[in-house]
Specification:
Layout (H helix, E strand, L loop, with lengths): L6 H8 L3 H18 L11 H20 L11 H17 L4 H14 L25 H17 L5 H14 L8 H14 L3 H15 L1 H8 L8 H13 L3 H14 L3 H12 L4
Helix pairs in contact: 1-2, 3-4, 3-5, 4-5, 5-6, 5-7, 6-7, 7-8, 8-9, 9-10, 10-11, 11-12, 12-13
C-alpha cells in the first residue's frame, strides 16, 4: 500500500493495468534498497526538490477518497479526504510561500466543500450541476477562495494545482449552475493544457467547451482522445451523444462506462441515465 491505497487503486488512478503498477512499485522499492536511501525527515534544504512528489501522492489519496474507484469501498471515503487535507495543511505550514502547495490546498478545500452534496440519499452520484449548493460547506469555500486570491495577488505564473484550484473557484462562486462563467473555465483549461497536455485534461476541457459551444463541438474533441480504458471518457461521450439525440450510440457508450466504473454511486447514476434514454 502507498498512502493508504492499494496497488489496484493506484493503478486505476494512473490508468494503467494493476500488474504494471505493481512492477513500478517493486522497481522503486528495489532502487531505494540498492541505493540505501534512508527513511528520515528531509532537511529544510531538501524540501523544494521533493515537494512535487509529495503533492502528487497527497492529491492521489484525496481523489481516491472523493470518488472511490473500488466497488468494495464506500462511494466517498471521508477518512481519506480528511487525511489528505490534514497532511496538505502540514506541508503548507512548512512551505507557506510555495505556490503549488497553496494551490493544492485550495483545490482540496474547494472540492471537499461539495462532498456532502456529492451522493444522494439513494446512493447515486449527483453531478455538479444538480447538487444542492446550500449543502456546500461555505467555510471551506471561503478559505479556498482566499488561497486562490492569495496566489493571484502574487503575480507569479501559476502551476497545475493553482489552475485547477482556480477552476474550482469559478464553479463554487456560482450560486446556480446556470451562472457558471464557462468562458473563464475554458480559458483556465487552455492554460492548464499548456502546463499539462494530457488526454484527461483535454477531456475535462471538452466538457467545459460543451457548455460554451455545444455538444457537437465538444464531441469532436472527445472522439480524438486515446482514453478507451477510462470510464469518464465513455461517460462524457454518452452524455454528449444523448444531448445530440443519438440514443443508440449513447446507450453503447453508457454500457462501456458502467462496465469500467468502479464507484457504485457513479455506476448507479450512469445506469439511470442509460435507462432514461428514448428509442
Amino acid at each position: 500500500m502507498v498512502g493508504g491505497l492499494t496497488v489496484s487503486e493506484i493503478a486505476r488512478a494512473f490508468l494503467v493495468p494493476e500488474t504494471t503498477m505493481a512492477q513500478r512499485i517493486t522497481r522503486a522499492k528495489a532502487k531505494i534498497k540498492a541505493a540505501r536511501i534512508p527513511y528520515r525527515v528531509p532537511e529544510d534544504g531538501d524540501l523544494a526538490a521533493r515537494v512535487d512528489g509529495v503533492l502528487a501522492v497527497l492529491y492521489l489519496v484525496f481523489n481516491e477518497g472523493y470518488l472511490a474507484s473500488s466497488a468494495d469501498a464506500d462511494p466517498v471515503r471521508a477518512d481519506l479526504t480528511a487525511e489528505a487535507v490534514r497532511l496538505t495543511r502540514l506541508v503548507h505550514e512548512l512551505m507557506p510561500d510555495d505556490g503549488e502547495v497553496v494551490g493544492l490546498l485550495a483545490l482540496m478545500l474547494l472540492t471537499e466543500a461539495r462532498r456532502g452534496a456529492r451522493v444522494s440519499a439513494h446512493g447515486e452520484l449527483v453531478t455538479l450541476d444538480q447538487q444542492d449548493r446550500g449543502a456546500w460547506d461555505r467555510a471551506l469555500i471561503e478559505e479556498g477562495h482566499a488561497l486562490v486570491q492569495e496566489r493571484l495577488a502574487s503575480g507569479l505564473p501559476p502551476g497545475r494545482y493553482q489552475v485547477l484550484a482556480a477552476v474550482n473557484a469559478v464553479h463554487t462562486d456560482a450560486g446556480d449552475a446556470r451562472d457558471t462563467d464557462w468562458p473563464q473555465v475554458v480559458a483556465l483549461y487552455d492554460q492548464l493544457t499548456r502546463l499539462d497536455p494530457s488526454p484527461v485534461v483535454a477531456l475535462n476541457r471538452a466538457i467545459a467547451v460543451a457548455e460554451l459551444d455545444g455538444p457537437q463541438v465538444a464531441l469532436a474533441l472527445v472522439e480524438e482522445l486515446p482514453l478507451d480504458g477510462y470510464h469518464a471518457f465513455h461517460a462524457t461521450r454518452a452524455d454528449l451523444l444523448r444531448r445530440l439525440g443519438r440514443s443508440a450510440h449513447a446507450r453503447a457508450a453508457y454500457d462501456r462506462a458502467i462496465e469500467l466504473a468502479g464507484n457504485t454511486a457513479e455506476a448507479a447514476y450512469l445506469t439511470r441515465r442509460r435507462d432514461e434514454l428514448g428509442p
